[in-house]
């Protein structure tokens, strides 16, 4: 039986580049890998990653040391996922949305016109 992805969210006032790099490093350190990401200007990023159930606790424990504060619902969802038995060879998919609080203007992307 396939598990539903964990939907987690956190917020920070720290530099987004540093936080994204730190979270990425912690995913790798827990034996996980990034499957997909979406950037929403400089306001938020969503990272979808996968890891083995044994790596979930390692990742959760390491998140305490980061600048990203996971919300209470996310912490509860992580605790429930760690308590649930996982079949051998199972992967856990996590969708982590990070919101950045800052005074910077929105990033503007210039999209060139395509003839045709």
Let me know the average pLDDT. Answer: 88
User: Which ranges are low-confidence, i.e. pLDDT below 50, for 5 or more consecutive residues?
Assistant: none
Numbering strands along the chain, what is their spatial order in the largest sheet?
2-3-5-1-4
Give the overall shape, derived from the CA principal axes: globular
The proportion of residues in beta strands is 25-35%
Number of helices: 3
Query: What is the share of helical residues?
Result: 25-40%
Distance between the termini: 47 Å
Summarize the structure in words.
It contains three helices and five strands. It is α+β, with helices and mostly antiparallel strands and 116 residues long. It has one domain. Strands 2-3-5-1-4 form a five-stranded mixed sheet. The model has no long low-confidence stretch (mean pLDDT 88).
Spell out the blueprint of helices and strands.
Blueprint: E1 6-12, H1 16-29, E2 33-40, E3 44-51, H2 53-63, E4 69-70, H3 72-83, E5 92-100
Parallel strand pairs: 1-5
Antiparallel strand pairs: 1-4, 2-3, 3-5
């Amino acid at each position: 039986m396939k598990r539903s992805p964990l939907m987690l969210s956190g917020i920070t006032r720290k530099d987004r580049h540093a936080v994204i790099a730190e979270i990425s490093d912690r995913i790798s350190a827990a034996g996980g890998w990034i499957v997909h990401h979406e950037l929403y200007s400089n306001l938020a990023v969503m990272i979808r990653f996968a890891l083995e159930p044994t790596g979930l606790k390692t990742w959760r424990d390491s998140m305490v040391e980061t600048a990203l504060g996971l919300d209470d619902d996310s912490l509860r969802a992580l605790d429930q996922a760690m308590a649930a038995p996982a079949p051998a060879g199972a992967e856990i998919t996590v969708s982590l949305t990070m919101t950045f609080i800052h005074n910077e203007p929105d990033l503007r992307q210039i999209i060139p016109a395509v003839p045709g």
